[in-house]
Amino acid sequence: MFSRRVAVLVFVATACGGGCDCGGTTLLGDAGDFVIPPAETLGTPCSESPPCDDGEPCNGVETCNPETGRCVGGELVADFTQCTTSDGRYASCVDGVCDLNYEELFVPAGPFVMGVGPEMDEFGCNRGYASPDRIATVSGFFVDRYELTNRRFKRCQRIGRCPPTWYERSFLRETYFSDPAFDDFPVLGLSLVDAQDYCAYEGKRLPTEAEWEKAARGGCELAPPDSCGEEDERMVPWDWPPLGDFVETCEEANYASYVGESCPNDTDGVGRRPLGRSPYGVDDMIGNVNEWTTDCAGFYPDCPGDCVDPHVPCDPDLDPSMWAMVYRGGSFYCSGALTARAGWGAQDGSFDIGVRCVRPAAEGSGDSSVKRGNRPLWERRRGGEAHDRRVQAGGLASDSIRRAVGMQLAGGGHASAG
Description:
Elements: H1 2-16, E1 21-22, E2 25-26, E3 63-65, E4 70-72, E5 82-84, E6 90-94, E7 97-107, E8 110-114, E9 134-138, E10 141-144, H2 150-158, H3 192-201, H4 209-217, H5 256-259, E11 290-296, E12 324-328, E13 341-345, E14 353-354, E15 358-360, H6 384-392, H7 396-406
Parallel strand pairs: 11-14
Antiparallel strand pairs: 1-2, 3-4, 5-6, 6-7, 7-10, 8-9, 10-15, 11-12, 12-13
């Protein structure tokens, strides 16, 4: 195998000529520059006494090979196992590397103020659905620092677990998903079912409304006094401690139609606005794309579950096509108050709805079990071609109408498919 690899390199370099552009690929130097190091020089030098450790937590337990005097890796840790980088950041193991594209941040257990009082509900694309305010307590959990990106979804495609083709365009761009320039931009077009399946593929799940809002707003432990009060009712993540005079600009969030042409009027790369991070350091909780939650849309009821890990499930007697699910956060064409709520059909994707996954901190809590089976995700999808048509159908006018219908929940309304 060693000699064959060298032969191939020699052939390619010789056939093209050193340093030329061969079919769009520039070869820097001639065949003599392609030196494959012998196996006995690979790995960190070691002896029998010191342990082998390259600082990478995802490539197994390394051992010292006495014949070569080099460290050799063990069995790779399973993909999407949580790992900690050398600087103490939580991430996920992917292909044997602790990958910060999958970085997670910790949200501690405890109370926070959820929603707003009616006198303050002046923000967001849909008003009047975030009242009354209440104190809710959630269990500790890890939340993805970034919205799910095209890069992460493409990796899922490469290993055969996600559909081989996906919704291509963004709001203004005809070519988006397949263009590497947008690899670190949010993936679009996932229905609630698609989003749930993807998070499960990573051993995670979608957040509840309460989890999403606490990750964006912060808990009552962040500002004195210890009890929950007005100082904990932030209207945007960066209003911390509450300033009362925050201004919506593109420096904090990507919500173009409210602040003018300084935003891209479409999706933007994740993590590009550190000034808009939440108190826990989560990026893009406001703007860029909306994000799915697992709560069925409706006016806030009286504290379900005694306001401990509150969750509003959908009516199991209704067909899922009738469910309207809550999405949060605002998008690139919508205002971004962290209490703004809207509903959307569970089986429909959209060009401004994305995904952020969570992982409960306690083992066995919630729906945290790893569900990565052998079946590709698209074999479990509901909607098929009809889903893809709904993602692409209509412009902003029809989109806004459907969202308004999706929040007419007290009367049993739902987001229609047409």
